[in-house]
Structure prediction request, 199 residues.
Amino acid sequence: MVKKIKSVITKKKRNFIPKATLIRLPFYLRALYVFEDEGHDVISSEEIARAIGTNSAQTRKDFSFLGEFGRRGVGYKVTKLIRHLEKFLGVTRKRRVILIGAGRLGSALLNTEGLRKRGFEIIAAFDVDPEKIGKTEGGVPIYDFRKFGEIIGNEKVDIAILTVPAKEAQKVVDVIVSHGVKSILNFVPIPLKVPKEVV
Prediction:
């Protein structure tokens, strides 16, 4: 993760941003997304720090490496800070996503606006349940996973979201990895074996 974050930062910035700060930046961003969803316009360094388990002095120091955004005694504008962190971390581009497992959790993810707001474009969902295949959920078509290769073909897929039963997870991962998927967001509560180039 740190290597990927560093890759989007200029050489000059790499020279003085501590590794520990780089590690914390994605956690700050995730916390800010929650604050934004809850309707906060301005947030204090203390509130941000509490959300990720650090202290306000460390948070202010971490943000100081990125420039000046906050006002002492006022706080940080949530949306502005989010946009700056997104740009800094290189997460502003849209990512093409597929979802495997359109059960309760999968359906909830397909219907949430949160993923789309964060730049995740879900292009297809897959399942093996005949009751689900051929339908749409959250505007996303659900296909037969047994035809995964045929349907995906040469489509570029950045991330696969995995919400299948645990006993099927490894078999599913083996299939999607064999078709070139390099990043997996795993909601299955078991470790999965993947090639070293797969995140």
Observations:
- The chain is about 45% helix and 15% strand.
- Strands lie at 42-43, 76-77, 95-100, 120-127, 136-137, 140-144, 159-162, 184-186.
- Confidence is low (pLDDT under 50) at residues 4-15.
